[in-house]
Design goal:
By secondary structure, the protein is α/β, with parallel strands linked by helices. 31% of the residues lie in helices and 17% in strands. It is built from ten helices and twelve strands. Strands 7-8-9-6-5-4-3-2-1-10-11-12 form a twelve-stranded mixed beta sheet. Strand 10 and strand 11 form a beta hairpin. Helix 1 crosses helix 9, helix 2 runs parallel beside helix 3 and helix 3 runs parallel beside helix 5. The longest helix is centred in the first third of the chain and has 13 residues. It binds S-adenosylmethionine and iron/sulfur cluster.
């Protein structure tokens, strides 16, 4: 289905939990309160929603959170969505801690690809950013997933005064052929307003100064707003998600579903439509109508670059990043 600006909406990000086994300081502050389980959508409710979404032409699904793999039975949900007629792709974004443990189940369930969020390859810095000493396990998971033939992308958020220089270590995954890397500009969402973003323009220049010219890689890599480049002779690509400096809204293709059943037309704004009520007491047609409204209600563009604007105040982990 197309939105009111003519954009084809074919991608849904599905948050399955607000909980997480890390406390990345820009995402989930210490002391966050958990949403009670009865407010969280069941897998059956999520699958019913996805079935209606698929009927509207949404063919690609990303399982996210919080950390999706802390929710028991997550591979079963991958399978349930994968089996819906019309669904072409189910992917996941994870911090990687439990990925090695669930890898076989996820592959059996039909997972198409995985994004692993990793902001540094320095063990002490990792602990400082996330609150836990889990870097070795994340590295094992990345190798295991890549070794099993799953397409892996690493998502990194760099911040001045924290991990601005981490790009050098992270680029080794790409040079080695284990994963694509994507650098995401920190967005002023929830706790993200406290940090200092590293501009992708600046980073681009630093990478070129170190490794030589970055050549645009037009090959298809995913569903998102990343723009990809290649360093000569490297087997995988370097992507930039310039959330602040790049206005990619003209190509936006997505909706978000929070773990409590709020459909969010755009990450930047606080507006959302409740679909859980319809799933718990309404008809399939009612659910589909809410999906249509969310698609039609997508704003033309985000306003992250406007420092005076009120952007989403909830943390990413609550919305479903
Ligand atoms: N736990 C999973 C993970 O870490 O991949 C999935 C959820 S997490 C909220 C999804 C992504 O959102 C992560 O890559 C994280 O770095 C990113 N993120 C969280 N807060 C952000 C912010 N304010 N700006 C940019 N990215 C953010
Ligand atoms: Fe958890 Fe992912 Fe947020 Fe880190 S970025 S706290 S891993 S949800």
């Amino acid at each position: 289905m197309r939105d009111s600006y003519g954009r084809k909406i074919d991608y849904l990000r599905v948050s399955v939990t607000d909980r997480c086994n890390l406390r990345c300081r820009y995402c989930m502050p210490e002391g966050s309160e958990w949403i009670p389980m009865e407010e969280i959508m069941t897998f059956e409710e999520i699958t019913r929603l996805c079935r209606e979404a698929a009927a509207l032409g949404i063919t690609k699904y990303k399982i996210t959170g919080g950390e999706p793999l802390v929710r028991r039975g997550c591979p079963a949900l991958v399978r349930m969505i994968r089996e819906i007629p019309g669904v072409q792709q189910v992917t996941m974004t994870s911090n990687g801690i439990l990925l090695e443990r669930y890898l076989t189940e996820l592959l059996d369930a039909g997972l198409s690809a995985v994004n692993v969020s990793l902001d540094t390859t320095d063990r002490e810095k990792y602990r400082e950013i996330t609150g836990f000493d889990e870097l070795p396990q994340v590295l094992r998971s990345i190798r295991a997933a890549s070794g099993a033939g799953l397409r892996v992308k690493i998502n990194a958020v760099l911040q001045e005064g924290l991990n601005a220089g981490a790009w050098e270590g992270l680029l080794h995954f790409t040079e080695e052929g284990l994963a694509d890397i994507r650098f995401i500009e920190l967005m002023p969402i929830g706790r993200g307003t406290d940090g200092h973003m590293v501009s992708n323009e600046e980073l681009f220049r630093k990478i070129e100064a170190r490794y030589g010219p970055l050549v645009r890689d037009g090959a298809f890599h995913g569903n998102g707003p990343a723009v990809y480049y290649r360093v000569a002779d490297w087997p995988r690509s370097v992507g930039f998600i310039s959330a602040i400096h790049g206005k990619f809204c003209g190509h936006c293709n997505r909706l978000r579903l929070s773990s409590t059943g709020q459909l969010k037309p755009c990450l930047c704004y606080e507006d959302s439509l409740d679909v859980r009520g319809a799933l718990r007491g309404g008809s399939d047609a009612g659910v589909r109508d809410i999906l249509k409204k969310a698609i039609q209600g997508k704003p033309r563009m985000h306003c992250f670059e406007d420092t005076g604007a009120v952007t989403e105040r909830q943390e990413m982990a609550k919305i479903g990043g």
